[in-house]
Amino acid sequence: MEQVMMLPRPVPAPEERFAAVHAACHNTVFRYLARRIIPAHLAEDLTGEVFVIVWEKVLGGAQPETAYVVAIARNLLRGAYRATAKASKLRSAFAHERMRPRVENPQVARALETMKEPARELLLLTYWDSFTTEEIAVILDSSPGAVRVRLHRARKAFATALASDSALQFSTGEAARP
């Protein structure tokens, strides 16, 4: 019987691995940042910074998944706002407002505004950014079970806030206006 010699597969070069991660994640990362930062060129700059870090990770042998790359973006965004806060309290307040996504429906916007930041972010990651529970767990450095519980509580808080806003509008007659 003749033996077939198996050659080991060549390991892709770091450039190829980075290109694959970049192609898989770039649009998601940019959209995540663009929804939270104004003007758009700042989101482009921050996206570039994210992929500098991803390049370093790839050189170290990693093959980061999308959720991990978004977690890097989230951390850079938080760091950028912390730096802004140190520069000026006025700029910090202004930047915090810019971090929030624009919501077209005024009732939804008011309901989100009344929620605590962690619950609001969890809802936005789920519904605005369409991440799965497992991906959110990576982004928030938590377990999927904890994310599911927190998401359940956030949904209840949102429903309560939306219902109280609707009741307030109904009692003041706002809802009847076109």
TrEMBL record:
Q: Which domain of life is it from?
A: Bacteria
* Stretches assigned to the RNA polymerase sigma factor 70 region 4 type domain: 108-157
Question: Which UniProt keywords are present, listed alphabetically?
Answer: Sigma factor, Transcription, Transcription regulation
Tell me any Pfam family this protein matches.
Sigma70_r4_2
PANTHER family linked: RNA POLYMERASE ECF-TYPE SIGMA FACTO, RNA POLYMERASE SIGMA FACTOR RFAY-RELATED
Similarity comment text for this entry: Belongs to the sigma-70 factor family. ECF subfamily.
**NCBIfam families, from UniProt?**
sigma70-ECF (TIGR02937)
Listed name of the protein? RNA polymerase sigma-70 factor (ECF subfamily)
Q: What is the lineage of its organism?
A: Bacteria, Bacillati, Actinomycetota, Actinomycetes, Micrococcales
